[in-house]
Structure formats: structure tokens, C-alpha cells
């Protein structure tokens, strides 16, 4: 740059490096900003932050002003010259301006605990992380006994965010009390569910938070080695986590003597290979051991005989990234968010046919209606919402009559639905629910680990039966057959893959029966 | 771009050796081999079996279990199209029809000129910006048929000039 820096105010501009932002041109936008600034002789610092999670605004460019960060979006490369002309570096008005980022209602109305730093900091700056409260939870944990840490996590009410909702503190306690020469922490970052991307976002936007959470877990249970199992579909997350781990070693937050204490923790990333079932914890362990990802029968629990037969904590990314704030602010602080036995916050993910898709971190108890309309703004196609699938491909399809249901593990279970990982996939009225039911079976057939017959064969039969129903062949008989099949899969499957595939199928049948009983003529006429 | 190196036993042995220190090394080795050669060559199986003290059948069993590992060399570019629910809700099926017609290729196939292989995937983690497509390692969101053509235009032009 030609001018001496000290004579001109150095502007700071944030352009996300999150994969979703990159997918709509964030790199091109950043390059255009760099080029335009050079052309105009304006010194500029571009920070590649994570995403704020307002994905419909990506690429969301922010400029630092004395009042705070001002948002512009979605900014395409071709918008950049106009933004400079308008004076966006001073936070000036423009057709793409949204004012102060943190005042945007979608963002302002959230309760960000786990995602507090995501989109704000440079994900690969240890300094930035520390400035925003990073490592405070770990520092506190380093001064506590393992039992005290486990108690803190138990008291926070944190339940596993990977789907099943098992209390994290209880799991850790089992591993703590197990006697072994070696224990492991395994982070499940397989995130295979359609409609979920929160694990990916936090790994790309705040990777040290996961490293911190895993290190706290290691100290709590006496583990010295850990793995993060990331799916191969996430190359950006893999690269970010690997770089963050390298930096954490450099700064002695990982390694043999964590910040001068006697604690030792080594962490490595392993990449999956495109198998949904490897998100199931025992399959994941098999895969980490270099085997086919088939499900192990439980017991023994992984907490007692997990990776390489040793006591192992298996936790989801969001369970582990919730731990630093619990240790930092205390169990009570975290537990005070939420309802009933669903404590704290969840990163709800609004996906599919939704106008304002993205992450909404809210305390449990928020309703689907609030998420879909107040945050989501309805469908992007402008047509009515007909169905949402909550909790991934094994989750129920819900009709609008259930949208007032509060997001709460027990309330959802009561209507045979699940909160799961917090993913919400929206469909407008053009959806054909018989086809969605068929897809659930097709997915199970493709992704079954093959270990048990009801799942391996049942799902293939399920596709055939659905084909006949869709073709209008002996519909009543085939629906009876479908119900029988669902029952066998529910009762006879070893894991939730086969055991829960009937949930989307049955919910579609229950709430949208008209899609299963159209005459062949009506089907043909469409 | 997908790796195009021709099979070389020496190279494969070196790739395998570089991952020898890892516990549960088979997956990292397979990933490294696929990165080098574009697929898991049949001739890699005995090398892996010997290194890890497994039967060839065991190694085969692992390779065939995972969708990501391929047994034959892919085209020069791999296009992965998401077929999961969030993308379905945004008419991924229509996009897939367009891609099939446009490139004259079906899933698990490679175009006649060897330029593109088409693969289905279930979720790329870009579900709020559906439908999603990944070309080599570049993710694309909100991919309409027109945007798909734009995304592949430069690659198609380069390929045509070959
Ligand atoms: C078919 C299937 C797929 C799963 N996929 C995932 C996944 O992608 N990520 C995840 O964290 N948990 C997944 N789970 C749940 C895990 O088995 C396990 O409960 C979880 O990783 C435990 O961590 P948590 O207690 O922190 O939730 C899956 C379970 C099943 C049955
Ligand atoms: S239910 Fe399906 S995925 Fe689960 S163990 Fe049985 S065959 Fe494997
Ligand atoms: S469902 Fe297509 S990217 Fe997630």
C-alpha cells in the first residue's frame, strides 16, 4: 500500500470464511473489497470471521465503526464498488445496509451462549479467542478436581446435543469412575442429519471452543487422548480444526503440560468417509479403529468399553462446545435458561424452504411457530408451510397444527417427534408426503450398516411398498403392510437407524393421509 | 480437480508408510491413497492388508462399506449433488434432472469425455442455502439450473479446449 498507515484510519472489514458464506461467493466478495480498496488507496484490514448464522444475508459484510459493527448483505462482488461509493466504510446507508449487526432482530432476539463468539472473532486467532472470554472455562477447570468439574456439568442440566439427549454429566461420571490405563474423548462431528449445520458452523467459526470443551472433558474424566471425527463432506471444517489444533499446541493449550500444569491432552482429527451410520456412536468408534462402521451391541457402554476397548466419552460437538461457558459462568447460569428438563439453549437450524434460514440459538421452550415465522419469515417460495421435519431424517414430519409445541425434549417425545440436533426442515404446500415417506425408507436402505435384518431388508421392502402405494395399487392393503413393516423395524432393530426410520414414515401417514390415498388417475393427472 | 496420478506401487507404499504411526490407520491410509490416485486401486488392497496385518477380505470390506471410497478412477472433476430433505424442499430433484440432461451423465457415472463424475450425497451442511452442490472441494449454495450452468461454464470451457 502506498500511504503510510499512521496517517489514515485503518478500516476493519469482516467477510466470513464459513463454508455457507463461501458457497454464495464470500471469497469473491473479499477479493473485490481488497481490489477496490487498493484501487482507491484506502488501507484496509479484512478479517475472515465465521458466520453470524443469518445465512440468507451471506455474504454478510461488516464494517467496524465507533458505534459497533454495521452489516451489509447479501454482498456480491459486483456490489462492492457501489458500497465504497456510498461510504460503507463509515457505516453509511445503502440498499444492502442493515444497521448495527447486533440490533438486527433475528440476531438481537437470540440467547447466544454456545455461539457467543461465532461470527464475531477471527476463528484462528488465539488472541481474539482470549479477548472474547476464551479459555476462562478451562482455566477454572485446571484449578478444580475432576469430580468438581463433573458435578458442575451435571448441575448445569446439559443433555447430549447429538440427538438422544442423554445427560452429559452422568456420562462423564461413568468414565471418571472407570478404572483404566487409558481413556479417550471422542467428539462426534459426523453431523449427517439433513437440515443441520451447527456443528460445522462452530467448528469453522470458533474451533478453539471445541478444543477447550474437549480439554475440560479430558481433565474431568482423566483422559489424555482425543479424536474429532469429522465427516468428509466438511473439508473446510476439517482444515479449520486441524489448523486450530496446531495453534493450540503452539500456545501450549494442548500437549504434555497444558499451561504449566501437570495435565496432558493430545488431540487429532479423523475424517469419515460418507457413511451416515458413522454418526451413531459405536459405529463411529469402529470407524475410528479403522473398521467398517457397523453398530456395536450395547452393553458394554462406550463409557466403559469404547475406543480400542477403553473408557471413552463420546459427545456431540455442541455438547462439548457448551462446556466452556458452563465452567466459566457456572452451572446455575446455564441451567437458568430453558424449561422443564430441557436446560440451557439449543442452536436451532432453520433450513430448506425458509426465507430467513440460519442458526437461532434460543433457550428451550421456544415454539416452532416462533422459529418458523418470527425468525424464519415463512417460506422463501412465499407459499404456505405445509410440513416441517424436525430432528433430522429420522425425525417426524409435523403439520401446522403442531407448530405451537414448545421445543422441549419431553414435549416433542409426547407427540412421537424429536428435537434431535435442532434441525428444522421446511416444506411448502407443493410437497408430496408419500414421496417423503418413500425417501425415508430409501435413505435407510442406502445407509443401513447391514447388521440386522429388520433394517437392512425392511427398508428395501419399505421402498417397494411405498412405490405400490404411490402407484395407487391396492392402497389399503399396502398401507396395512407398511404399518406392519414399521412395527417390525421399530421393535426389531438394533439401533435407531432402523428403529426410527418408521417415525418420518408414520408421521407422514398420520398427519397427511390424503397424500397416500390419491387414486392412480389423480396421480397420473399431475 | 481429482488426482490423476497413475498407479505406482512405490508411491502407494510411501503413502501408506506416512500414515503408519496412526492408530486405527486404515481410514487415513485409504483417504491418502484416494487423494493420490483418485481411487482405491485393486493393487493397493494387498499392500494395506500386509501393512496392517489384516486379510484382503477385511480391507475390501472396509473399502466397500464407505460411500466415499471409489474403486475406479473418477472424471477430472467430481460433482456432488445433495439429495437430502432440505435440498428436496427446494427442488433438488429438478436440479438433478437438469444436470443429468445437461452433462448427459447419471449418478455414479462419468461423462464420455472424462471431465465430470456425478455423485449423490446426503447433506453438505448447507441446508439453509439449498439446493447445494459441491464441485471438487468447492461448495455452492442456492444452485438453480442457471446457476449450475454458470458454475460449470468455465470448467466446461477449459475442458472443451483440451
Ligand atoms: C443413526 C444415528 C446417527 C447419528 N448421528 C449422529 C451425528 O451425526 N452426530 C452426533 O453427535 N450424534 C449422532 N447420533 C447420536 C450418537 O449415537 C450419540 O448419541 C451422540 O454422539 C452422543 O453425544 P451427546 O451425548 O453429546 O449427544 C446418531 C445416532 C444414530 C442412531
Ligand atoms: S438398525 Fe440398521 S443401522 Fe442400526 S444396527 Fe441394525 S442394520 Fe445397522
Ligand atoms: S440437505 Fe442438502 S445441504 Fe443439507
Automatic annotation (TrEMBL), chain B:
The keyword Iron applies. The keyword Metal-binding applies. Belongs to the complex I 24 kDa subunit family. Its cofactor is [2Fe-2S] cluster. It comes from Azospirillum aestuarii. This is Formate dehydrogenase subunit gamma. Keywords: 2Fe-2S, Iron, Iron-sulfur, Metal-binding. InterPro entries: NADP_DH_HndA-like, NuoE-like, NuoE_N, Thioredoxin-like_sf.
Amino acid at each position: 500500500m502506498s500511504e503510510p498507515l499512521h496517517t489514515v484510519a485503518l478500516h476493519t472489514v469482516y467477510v466470513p470464511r464459513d463454508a455457507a458464506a463461501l458457497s454464495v461467493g464470500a471469497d469473491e466478495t473479499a477479493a473485490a473489497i481488497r481490489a477496490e480498496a487498493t484501487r482507491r488507496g484506502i488501507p484496509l484490514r479484512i478479517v475472515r470471521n465465521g458466520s453470524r448464522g443469518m445465512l440468507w444475508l451471506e455474504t454478510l459484510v461488516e464494517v467496524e465503526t465507533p458505534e459497533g459493527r454495521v452489516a451489509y448483505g447479501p454482498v456480491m462482488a459486483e456490489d462492492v464498488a457501489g458500497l465504497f461509493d456510498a461510504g460503507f466504510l463509515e457505516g453509511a446507508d445503502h440498499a444492502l445496509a442493515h444497521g448495527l449487526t447486533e440490533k438486527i432482530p433475528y440476531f438481537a432476539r437470540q440467547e447466544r451462549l454456545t455461539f457467543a463468539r461465532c461470527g464475531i472473532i477471527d476463528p484462528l486467532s488465539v488472541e481474539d479467542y482470549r479477548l472474547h472470554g476464551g479459555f476462562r472455562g478451562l482455566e477454572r477447570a485446571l484449578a478444580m478436581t475432576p469430580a468438581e468439574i463433573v458435578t458442575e456439568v451435571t448441575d448445569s442440566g446439559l443433555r447430549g446435543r447429538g440427538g438422544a439427549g442423554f445427560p452429559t454429566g452422568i456420562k462423564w461420571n461413568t468414565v471418571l469412575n472407570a478404572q483404566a490405563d487409558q481413556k479417550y474423548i471422542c467428539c462426534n462431528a459426523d453431523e449427517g442429519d439433513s437440515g443441520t449445520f451447527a456443528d460445522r458452523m462452530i467448528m469453522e467459526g470458533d474451533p478453539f471452543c471445541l478444543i477447550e470443551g474437549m480439554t475440560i472433558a479430558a481433565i474431568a474424566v482423566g483422559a489424555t487422548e482425543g479424536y474429532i471425527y469429522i465427516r468428509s463432506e466438511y473439508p473446510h471444517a476439517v482444515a479449520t480444526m486441524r489448523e486450530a489444533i496446531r495453534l493450540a499446541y503452539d500456545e501450549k493449550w494442548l500437549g504434555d503440560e497444558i499451561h504449566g500444569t501437570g495435565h496432558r491432552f493430545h488431540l487429532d482429527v479423523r475424517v469419515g468417509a460418507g457413511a451416515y451410520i458413522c454418526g451413531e456412536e459405536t459405529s463411529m468408534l469402529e470407524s475410528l479403529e479403522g473398521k467398517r462402521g457397523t453398530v456395536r451391541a450395547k452393553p458394554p457402554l462406550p463409557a466403559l468399553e469404547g475406543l480400542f476397548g477403553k473408557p471413552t466419552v463420546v459427545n456431540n460437538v455442541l455438547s462439548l462446545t457448551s462446556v466452556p461457558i458452563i465452567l466459566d459462568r457456572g452451572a446455575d447460569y446455564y441451567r437458568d435458561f430453558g424449561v422443564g428438563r430441557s436446560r440451557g439453549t439449543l442452536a436451532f437450524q432453520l433450513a430448506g424452504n425458509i426465507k430467513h434460514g440460519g442458526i437461532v440459538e434460543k433457550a428451550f421452550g421456544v415454539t416452532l411457530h416462533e422459529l418458523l415465522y418470527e425468525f424464519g419469515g415463512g417460506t422463501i417460495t412465499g407459499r404456505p408451510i405445509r410440513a416441517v421435519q424436525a430432528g433430522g431424517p429420522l425425525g417426524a414430519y409435523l403439520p401446522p397444527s403442531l407448530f405451537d409445541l414448545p421445543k422441549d425434549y419431553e414435549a416433542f417425545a409426547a407427540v412421537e417427534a424429536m428435537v434431535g440436533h435442532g434441525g428444522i426442515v421446511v416444506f411448502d404446500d407443493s410437497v408430496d408426503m408419500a414421496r417423503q415417506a418413500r425417501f425415508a425408507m430409501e435413505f435407510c436402505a442406502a445407509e443401513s450398516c447391514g447388521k440386522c435384518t429388520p433394517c437392512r431388508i425392511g427398508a428395501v421392502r419399505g421402498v417397494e411398498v411405498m412405490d405400490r402405494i404411490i402407484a395407487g395399487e391396492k392402497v389399503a392393503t399396502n398401507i396395512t403392510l407398511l404399518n406392519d413393516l414399521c412395527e417390525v423395524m421399530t421393535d426389531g432393530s438394533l439401533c435407531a437407524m432402523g428403529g426410527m426410520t418408521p417415525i418420518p414414515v408414520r408421521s407422514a401417514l398420520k398427519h397427511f393421509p390424503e397424500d397416500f390415498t390419491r387414486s392412480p388417475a389423480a396421480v397420473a393427472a399431475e | 480437480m481429482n488426482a490423476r496420478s497413475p498407479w505406482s506401487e512405490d508411491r502407494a507404499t510411501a503413502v501408506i508408510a506416512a500414515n503408519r504411526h496412526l492408530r486405527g490407520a486404515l481410514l487415513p491410509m485409504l483417504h491418502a491413497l484416494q487423494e493420490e490416485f483418485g481411487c482405491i486401486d485393486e493393487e493397493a488392497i494387498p499392500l494395506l492388508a500386509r501393512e496392517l496385518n489384516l486379510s484382503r477380505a477385511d480391507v475390501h470390506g472396509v473399502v466397500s462399506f464407505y460411500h466415499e471410497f471409489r474403486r475406479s478412477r473418477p472424471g477430472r472433476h467430481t460433482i456432488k449433488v445433495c439429495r437430502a430433505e432440505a435440498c428436496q424442499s427446494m427442488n433438488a430433484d429438478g436440479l438433478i434432472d437438469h444436470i443429468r440432461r445437461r452433462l448427459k451423465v447419471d449418478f455414479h457415472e462419468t461423462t464420455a469425455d472424462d471431465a465430470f463424475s456425478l455423485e449423490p450425497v446426503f447433506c453438505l451442511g448447507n441446508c439453509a442455502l439449498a439446493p447445494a452442490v459441491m464441485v471438487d472441494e468447492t461448495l455452492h449454495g442456492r444452485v438453480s439450473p442457471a446457476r449450475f450452468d454458470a458454475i460449470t461454464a468455465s470448467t466446461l470451457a477449459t475442458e472443451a479446449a483440451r
